[in-house]
Amino acid sequence: MSQTKPYRVSHLDALEAESIFVMREVMAEFERPVLLFSGGKDSIVMLRLAEKAFAPARIPFPVMHIDTGHNFPEVLEYRDRRVATLGLNLVIASVQEAIDTGLVRELPDGTRNRIQTPVLLAAVEKYRFDALFGGARRDEEKARAKERMFSFRDEFGQWDPKNQRPELWSLYNGRHHPGESIRVFPLSNWTELDVWHYIAKEKIELPSIYYAHEREVVERSGMFYAVNEFIKLRDGETSEVRQVRYRTVGDASQTAAVLSDADTVDKVIDEVAATRITERGATRGDDRVSEAAMEDRKREGYF
Amino acid sequence: MSQAVLEPDAAAARGMDLLRFATAGSVDDGKSTLIGRLLFDTKTIFEDQLEAVETASASRGDEYTNLALLTDGLRAEREQGITIDVAYRYFATPRRKFIIADTPGHIQYTRNMVTGASTADLALILVDARKGLVEQSRRHAFLTSLLRVPHLVLCINKMDLVDWDKAVYDKIADEFTSFAAKLDAPDLTIIPISALNGDNIASRSDKSPWYEGPSLLHHLEHVHIASDRNLVDVRFPVQYVIRPQSTTVTDYRGYAGQVASGILKPGDDVMVLPSGLTSKIASIDTADGPVEEAFPPMSVTVRLTDEIDISRGDMICRPNNAPAVAQDIEAMICWMDETAPLRVGGKYTIKHTTRTARTVVRGLQYRLDVNTLHRDESAGELGLNEIGRVKLRTTVPLLADEYRRNRTTGGFILVDESTNRTVGAGMIIEAR
Lengths: 303, 432
Known about the structure:
The structure holds two protein chains of two kinds.
Chain A: H1 11-29, E1 33-36, H2 41-54, E2 63-67, H3 73-86, E3 90-94, H4 95-101, H5 116-127, E4 131-133, E5 150-153, E6 181-184, H6 192-202, E7 213-220, E8 223-226, E9 240-245, E10 258-259, H7 265-274, H8 279-283, H9 293-299
Parallel strand pairs in A: 1-2, 1-4, 2-3, 4-6
Antiparallel strand pairs in A: 5-6, 7-8, 7-9, 9-10
Helix pairs in contact in A: 1-2, 6-7
Chain B: E1 17-25, H1 31-41, H2 47-60, H3 68-71, H4 75-80, E2 87-92, E3 96-104, H5 110-118, E4 122-128, H6 135-146, E5 151-157, H7 166-182, E6 187-192, H8 216-222, E7 236-237, E8 240-242, E9 254-258, E10 269-273, E11 277-285, E12 299-304, E13 315-317, E14 324-335, E15 342-343, E16 347-352, E17 355-368, E18 375-376, E19 381-382, E20 387-400, E21 411-415, E22 422-431
Parallel strand pairs in B: 1-3, 1-4, 4-5, 5-6
Antiparallel strand pairs in B: 2-3, 7-13, 8-9, 9-12, 10-11, 10-13, 11-12, 14-20, 14-22, 15-19, 16-17, 16-21, 17-18, 17-20, 21-22
């Protein structure tokens, strides 16, 4: 067969095709999938991929927000608008409610990243979700670099890194017993830069805090935290108004902004391409705790 | 370390393609150093990662910054100083995005190597110039050929420690080339390097004027992978049927899937297996609108002109070019379960393309010694990491091709029916 065309596929198209394949596999093989949606850029990209995977039908599963109660208002507004546009069913699992009912206890430092896990697991049990789409990427963190696309969890939601199923070709093994579940990471092979290129290519709207804006911030160990109801100035600290943007969006009490004048998607791409610090290292207080902080959290059932 | 030489260009990045490669080896070969070097030279190692690795190295008492700690992410790996699992790493140059499946090299990790190689376009094998080929290098070359990875690169590392002696390079290259010839090996490139000093990695080194080939990175960026895809045999495993329950879209019935091979176009005559019914492609849809053709690895939705009963696990192909509809399968199987061996009479779930069935092991023809390639026909079982030729019978037909012709429709996994673990990986030799 003479080849007149190269039949070339760009890396973004190849990544998109892989993610869509994974989402369709889940829909075909599981009873009750759910997509974890935080309003962060990765879950927003994942939602777009779900839209594309099942078009012209609607996204055939609900989305779930594990709400720490420490939110950026821009992100909540975005979440509700997006869910309404797509006609999705939104499940909110509230950490505040779990604290109020005694399921979890507020930590002395007031951070809520770690106590999200029991809330997530309780919601999985309540709604009997058997597959949970997460937006985690392998380039984010070294424990994640070893996790499978289909990550098996036992009835306690735990990840056992030494007992993972080999994943060959595009044959994903989602079999599980009742009560067990699979975390599915369709963006496993995407990098932060890929995500931004895709946002540009697809013209995906993001919460405004991803782009440069002026904000009152306080500097703590080299990170810039917004001064708001969750982060108050301590004795001796002073705040200042700086031009910043958020590189990741997590719990508002623990997510720092970066100094930036990137106010468009193209400028963000240039910034991300040139940066010398990983996104979690630049913005997440919680990952700095220890070498194996993420692995330990995942063993407990974290995302 | 020397200065970084390449900068991923943000604007060009949107048009680059994707190359997946697998590396196998141990710290002794300098594999981690090589990967660290590739990441460093393409500005993929971040300052906070490097700092963390430096701190961790110092606290372990390492004399140098141990780049293996970049990829060894699990607590057990860091404590024991070994790589247990496949780690995926990413880097990009202006021409290509690369996904590295980094796998440990020892024989007890054969299953990890097989896993990493299953999706690879290229395999990279390292040897120490001072030691030459060892058992492990031959085993890696064999697994590369078994998994039909189309391109193989042998990096002869630590050339600085043999004074860049051309005779050393020639001897190892000759020996490897003649070994590879026996393997029905793919496209082979042999590069003399020093991963530690960065020679022949990102650019050609002046230390090896006698070497006329490309630097490693140049080769990775330019190796021609487009023609590795099978564009001849149309194979479209149906993944999921899209039928919107909506008032705005009515009577839509589309077959969603990823093109395994071949080129599909609207108007093409197609046959659907296992029914054998024929129809024509009415349209090929994506969320961005219909497309004029679909080829691997595109994920699309195919609509046909006739209403025929099609469900997940069926295969759309061409009437004059179809896979076997087969319940008797002969395959090479790599066994991956540490809890129980593969035995004749064993029953498993088999997953092949989008089709799942049950299967029974009818016979074990031989077990292959992956180091000597000796066939042991008296073997009664396959243990963890062992490879053998096996006969299977399935409860329903598989729509299968030979693995050597089609990696997607020729590969399968076996799943234990009680533990649900993935226990075996198979490559079809014959299906009927």
